[in-house]
Amino acid sequence: MADNIVRLAGVIKESIVDGPGIRMTVFTQGCPHHCEGCHNPETWDFEGGFDCEIEKLINTAKKDPLLQGLTFSGGEPFAQAKPLAKLAKMCHENGYNVFCYTGYTFEKLVSSFDTHPEWKELLEEVDYLVDGPFILAEKSLMLHFRGSKNQRLLDVKKSLAENKAIDAENV
After folding, report:
1. One Pfam family this chain carries (predicted)?
2. What's residue 102's pLDDT?
3. What is the dihedral of CA 163, 96, 24, 33, to 10 degrees?
4. Among the listed residues 110, 116, 70, the one whose alpha carbon sits nearest the alpha carbon of residue 89
5. Whether the Cβ atoms of residue 71 and residue 23 lie closer than 8 Å to each other
6. Where are the alpha helices (DSSP H) in 34-130?
């Protein structure tokens, strides 16, 4: 697939539950994790959804003066890391922050940079990361932007700088 095309399950133009502030949430299509109790099982099939140019997404965001950022959800965003890294870069160029959900842990992503350099590209453009698979037995409705207690809300810039997972503060 071209670097400027992302396979989507859908888009929510304004969300207040998928990260801080008012955000546009991009639901990617395709997920290898298949977590029991997944909130979006319709996003698992890599053949489902529809193709969308990343320029269309950033242009949609720019039409809304209330948006503070974009959230990449899924599916699994890191399954389409190359176009999402480009979109995240466009987000930063336009003053938006980037929030991303992944079923991988921060440590798994970092340890896979040699075999998946596109994961590094995307992670370097993410501001906040919720990492780890959703675990139904650890589900909690009391968690800030997370679905299960094993998941962490990380400050990616600090985590990459210190080469270890650093919890985000004041998000």
Report:
1. Fer4_12
2. 98
3. -10
4. 70
5. yes
6. 54-62, 81-93, 106-111, 117-125
The owner of tokens 């990449």 is: 72
Would you list the domain boundaries of the chain?
Answer: 13-162
CATH architecture group of domain 13-162: Alpha-Beta Barrel (3.20)
* pLDDT the model gives residue 1: 64
Tally of CB atoms within 10 A around 12: 14
Say how far apart CA 76 and CA 171 lie, in whole Å. Answer: 22
DSSP string for residues in 4-22: TEEEEEEEEEEESSSSSSS
What pLDDT sits at residue 2?
Answer: 80
Q: Which amino acid belongs to residue 28?
A: T
Element (H, E) at 121: helix 117-125
Predicted TM-score (pTM) of this structure: 0.97
Give the separation between CA 129 and CA 88, rounded to whole angstroms: 13
R_g over Cα of the chain: 15
